[in-house]
Amino acid sequence: MSKISIRFYKDHKVRAVWDEEKSQWWFSILDIVGAINEQDNHDKNRNYWKYIKAKLRKEHSEVVSDTTQLKLTASDGKRYNTDVISQAGVEKLAKAIPNSLAMAFLDWFKYSENTIDGQSKKKAYTLWESNLVADKDVGKVKALQQIHAYLFGGLYDFAGKIRTKTIAKGNTLFCLAEYLQDNLKKIEQMPERTFDEIVDKYVEMNVAHPFMEGNGRSTRIWLDLIFKKRLGQCVDWSKIDKRDYLEAMIASHVNSTRIRQLLRGAMTDRIADREIFMKGIDYSYYYEQED
Predict the structure, then answer these.
(1) What per-residue confidence (pLDDT) applies to 291?
(2) Selection from 280, 256, 250 nearest residue 121 by Cα
(3) Helix, strand, coil: what percent of the chain each, to 5?
(4) pTM for the whole thing?
(5) Domain 121-287 adopts which CATH fold?
(6) What 3-state DSSP class applies to 102?
(7) What are the boundaries of each domain within the chain?
């Protein structure tokens, strides 16, 4: 049970664990209940699930028999046996909950994986097993293009291609297209010997925004590869709040102090830990979800 995933529904976590033997994901029932009811209180979610479970047993519903227990990591960092249900069982569970919000959750659950982000995220998970970026290319534009092409190949016709149009996001204008190639060459030559130098390079690459779409997701992976190679560390993205990160990245165009603080506080030497990597992908894609 080494593959752990987190899905986000309206900022509520839904944890999942991969069953290699049965080739399927199992989802935390308490997280599903909490997401549907928009409730973060663990005790309330547990009591609500007890009530639903008792009701379903009286009705001889097969939902209860579709559940099992697996160990999932809790907020205190420890693993506990947790009631989980299969992907097919989630639909039965949602329909069994007498709550108008359950159908909205079910719509999200059924269709979120079929979006571009959902398909791209599946590809991102497999980066753990790949040798996509050669060590000699880490920190280069070529590596970033390879990552982007891997994540979005078949989803965007511009996957892995440097943009030729000028783009903006909100009030932020990214590097003008006519200067982009020269700017990328300069960024590639920036030193990456220390934490501060690596963050400087990351910030400049974010300002350049070399692709039409998918820059953040690709560049965060690129950043982690540099950290791993140069410092033997990576970012535990689960320690960085979504809004804090987005605000810090906007501010970094003028002042990178806040993003440095956030990244430094989330550094870990667990670079060979699959769970850290999977959580990194989950949070990276969560940052891009619109509220």
Answers:
(1) 64
(2) 280
(3) 55, 15, 30
(4) 0.80
(5) Fic-like fold (1.10.3290)
(6) helix
(7) 4-113, 121-287
